[in-house]
What we know:
Blueprint: H1 2-15, E1 18-23, H2 30-42, E2 45-51, H3 62-72, E3 79-84, H4 88-94, E4 99-104, H5 107-123, E5 128-133, H6 143-151, H7 165-174
Parallel strand pairs: 1-2, 1-4, 2-3, 4-5
Bound molecules: adenosine-5'-diphosphate.
Amino acid sequence: MVEPALAFIGRIEVEMKIAVYPGSFDPVTNGHMDIINRSSKIFDKVIVAVVNNRSKTPLFTVEERMELLKKSVVGLPNVEIDHFEGLLVDFIRSKNAQVIVRGLRAISDFEYEFQMALMNRKLAPEIETVFMMTRHKYSYLSSSIVKEVGSLGGCIKDLVPESILPYIIKKLKKN
Ligand code: ADP
């Protein structure tokens, strides 16, 4: 009687679909949150992975970006926050994940995303990239525009999760 139960547990583990949503998240916006929310309903687990990209100069450190994400995903039990440096496909393999999630806002996103997806497929053919189309109301939204508007004193209230708004405003004021 014990064996089939163990086999059943084993089968569940094997079938678990884990997706990685990589990005700079400098800082996380409501556009990112929309993709995180929607992908958490499709996959068993979503790992939001902050890229430590040395060629970009971020406003928030990796630790700060992870902290803001953690505060934003409270209430989404199958979403984890992590970070990585180096090749995305290596990180994905280390997490036993099978899928890369990316968001698409406009045609301007497409060329870069297409190139990355094809390169990742060449490096790791077993990993699939899934694109999620932005919600119309977030199609203009990016971390850069949040930083630009916020640093000039504009209202960013509806652009980032409410729980992290004070942290972002404080950081923008400091800079
Ligand atoms: P990166 O530097 O890797 O592009 P970003 O943090 O800017 O990191 O974006 C991470 C992912 O989220 C990308 O796939 C990007 O297209 C997507 N994204 C960013 N903003 C939005 C938005 N408003 N709606 C949908 N997807 C978005």
